[in-house]
């Protein structure tokens, strides 16, 4: 903020590099800097602020170049994100119990429902985590949502209600009593949908 409002180029560069390094750990947020720039410019547009935000954004995305070069070497595509988005999106549909799609929540690569799309495209044993599998699963994810947007909306409401009642992450160290109370709350919430 200090670098944007006042002319502290060093602060802008340090902030951009810090954000870029963080994006190397959580690349799914790669569009966030652009959104922040648009919000900042909408709030207070000036050419000076635009130039400073542009420098900030360039520093961020320059930090992602090593990852893009690495992914080019590994999967023959320049990527600034990970290749597990499709698998995570499909598994996320399974967060909604008794969903119409028949997806059971799984956090590993052995979900038969998720794997069948990649197996059909590339043969048995293909990975859902590589670039090609990711592309297939992202496409199927969108097809499933288009096939029943109401089911997806209910899944989003269910997930939002869990965030409100339980928080974002419970961890693996929940006591047994707490797990049973969470199951009761989940079943109560599920009864609304």
The average pLDDT is: 80
Helix and strand pattern: HHHHHHHHHH
Secondary-structure class:
mainly alpha
- C-alpha Rg, in Å? 21 Å
In which range does the helix fraction lie? 55-70%
Q: Main sheet?
A: none
Give me the number of helical elements: 10
Strand content: under 5%
* First-last Cα distance: 43 Å
- Name the poorly predicted regions: 172-177
Record field, number of beta strands? 0
Gross geometry: globular
3D architecture notes:
This protein has 193 residues and is mainly alpha-helical. The longest helix has 18 residues. It is globular and about 55 Å long. It starts with a helix and ends with a helix. About 3% of the residues have low confidence.
Tags for this model:
single chain, 193 residues, mainly alpha, 67% helix, globular
